[in-house]
Every structure is written in C-alpha cells, then in structure tokens.
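User: Can you predict the 3D structure for this chain?
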Amino acid sequence: MAMQREAPEFKRCCFCIPLRRGLIAWGYVKLILDLLVLAYLSLMFFWLAHYGLRFVSVYMLTYIFIAVCSFLDTAFSIVFIVAGHKKSIKLLKVSYVYNIVWLGFLVLGNSFTLYTDLKFLYKMWSYMKDHKYIVLEILASSALATSTVFIQIYVILLIRSEISKLQNQTLEMQFTNHVAAEPLCTLRNESDCTEKKLHGEEKGKIDI
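Assistant: Here is the predicted structure, written as structure tokens:
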C-alpha cells in the first residue's frame, strides 16, 4: 500500500507573524519591488531610445520581455493583496496557480543563467589569471538563484495553508448555521409550549 504524503501546512508566516498578515505584507513588498523594476526599465527604455535602436536591438527585446513579466507580476501582486484583505478563496486560488507557474519560470530562468555563466567560465578559464573572484561570483549568483526558488516554494505553501484555513472556517460556519437553522423548540411561553406538545401527541394518537 503506497503512502500518501501531504504538503505541510503553516499556522504562521516566518514562525512568528499571523499567516494572513504575513502574506499581505509579502504582497506589498513584492509590489514595491515590481514598481522599482518598472521604474528602472523605464529609464533603460529612455536611454536605449535616445542612443538608437539598431545598435541595442537585442537589449531592447530583452528589456521588453522583462517589462512584460514585471507588468504581469505587478497585476497579480495587486490581486494577491486584494485576496488577502477580503479573504477571498477564489482570488487566493488564482494567486496560488500563478505562483506555481512563476516558480516554473524561476527554475527555467535560473537554470539558463547558471548554464550561461558556467559556459562563459569554461571559455575564459585559460585567459584568466585570478580565478578566485569569478568562482565566488558564480557561487554567489547560484546561491541567490537557489534562495529565490526556495522562497517561492515557501510562499506557495503559505498560500495553500491560508486557502485550507479559510475553507475549514467556511465549512464550520455552514455547519453551525445548518444546526442553528433547525431548532427543535422555540420556548416563548412555557404553557404554550406544553399545550402545543400535548396537542401534537393527541393528534398523533388520532392519526394512528
């Protein structure tokens, strides 16, 4: 019999902050970073346009691709913040799927960057006298890429935990409302309740 392992669920963000507030704070931090990236890209577009597009066409295409990704990430960051404030399970599920897709892009992008760095290092190794700095630079970029992937996985697990918590709260509220909606007896007057009970028993005997 195969063992089924479920993904871990977290009650708090970073083990100290309430889960929903931590996710909202992360959404605002990510939104600020996206806006800074867009501001930087705007300056780069201005610089590239000023010095001509023929010479820097490859760089222009690269910056356009990064700008599109930044716009999408900004839009979904806003959706994520709204979902956290409104406790919307539907919007959180949208953010959950988007973060999984974004994780895939991160893995592919970081793998491609690491591959190009190693390829450059292999070609230039014989021409370099001091290899220590270039090796440290590649190790630092690899550590940064790995940390971004693990942070993204952690955020995905936090979003999943928040969705699970909200779904459980919704089920508990529905169960409570269902039980409360079917009272056995509403006691307004003790004599009235007794008379109704006796009248019901007599009616049941007559029906039999």
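The longest strand covers residues 12-13. Residues 46 and 73 are 22 Å apart (CA to CA).
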